[in-house]
Amino acid sequence: MSVTAVETRPEFAGILKPQETYAVAEREDLGNRINGWFDRLMVQSGFGLSAASVLMLCAVCGVLAGGLAFVIQESLLTTGLAAGLGAIGPVIAMLIARTRRQSQMMRQMPPMLEELARAARTGRSLERCLQQVSEDTPAPLGAELQLCTRRLALGMPVDAAFSEFSDRTGLVSSRVFVTALTVHRQTGGDLVRVLERLSRTVRDRMQFQGRLRAATAASRATAILMISLPPAILLFFVMRDPEYLSNLMDSAWGRTITALACLLEVVGALWILAVLRNSQRT
Fold first, then answer.
1. Full-model pTM
2. Tell me: the pLDDT tens digits for 218-238?
């Protein structure tokens, strides 16, 4: 009886290497939740950077922005504000990249599901169908599928190979897709009909979200304006008069009011972003 040997391939190293994370599964405190959000952001943005690399990039951007502000204004307060804005710049870039990447994957989901249904109708095995679909689907969704199919090639079961697929994409439809594959693998059933219905559901969901975004476009624009207007006004006055903010900070009540305003601005921004995020959940 011949034994099939597993061929050594370079891409397997990226599969077997554990992902660097800051969150701990056993903890439920606020700090661990923030670490988990940061870990998911790194993966879902598609940059392929480690946690240490992102933190180092934030530090470098903060130092560069603070140094440039100090050269222009020669004010420690302005330098601190610029350093803070520069430090969160990479995080904002990752948020934008994640939103665009998820939108692109959401558009790729219905064609991928339809192609997988056609491949399953031919009678081939689920692993072979997934491999074919992953090769035909362009990035970024195709790259995530190929990562899962390479795990299947190592001999992992479907549920284990696709265990991180929904977390890496951040899509609700991908979680439903993984659940459908797992249930079919365990109990059987008509996978073709399930995939076709899931494809229609995803398309209907996309159409509904498109109508929702069109109906709430004015509200979202107003919310974004409310978030960006106070920092923009402060930046204008600081650039026009470098001593403007320094005079405000000379008194105790000025520092108190400024700190309270910054706190309320951050709380309001997080609240508005949470509302926008829930309304655009994919």
1. 0.77
2. 877 887 888 888 888 887 887
